[in-house]
Amino acid sequence: MPRGNLEGIYPRIVMLKQVIEEIEATEYGKAFKLLRQHKIDINLIHDVNPAKFLSNIGKFVSEVKQVDHLNLFINSLNEDERGKELDFMRPLNQEDQIRAKHQGYISHDINGEPLNGEVSSKVNSICEAIKKELWALNQ
């Protein structure tokens, strides 16, 4: 139990830095717990590093074991890209800066159309990945 103001205060910027470190280390269970405990947008689990999150969706599902927590995560998803607001907290090397700068060109053809021909929303792609992982666990 906190005995004073300093033991009960968690500056949001410090918590965000810790959450980003946990997410980058693919410690999704710890990151989820911190986000939930400090009432920070749970959507950040995906937005910090979307490609890494989708490739480690199995680890996320296994670390966030409770169905209620998975439901909370799915319900908190939205189409906003909040991870770009936190780029100042993650120093990038020159290669990462070039890749981020040209990412928009890679996903579209010369006419500006998406390469795969369909536009998939962030929420649908995450839900589909979680559904596949849960289906595989149930088999």
Element order: H for helix, E for strand: HHHHHHHHH
Report the mean per-residue pLDDT as an integer: 80
So what's the oligomer here? single chain
The radius of gyration computed from the alpha-carbon positions, rounded to a whole number of angstroms, is 17 Å
- The helix fraction, in percent, is 55-70%
Number of strands: 0
Enumerate how many helices there are, as a single number. 9
Strand content: under 5%
Textual characterization of the structure:
This protein is an all-alpha fold and 139 residues long. The chain has one domain. 60% of the residues lie in helices and 0% in strands. The chain is globular and about 60 Å long. The chain starts with a helix and ends with a helix.
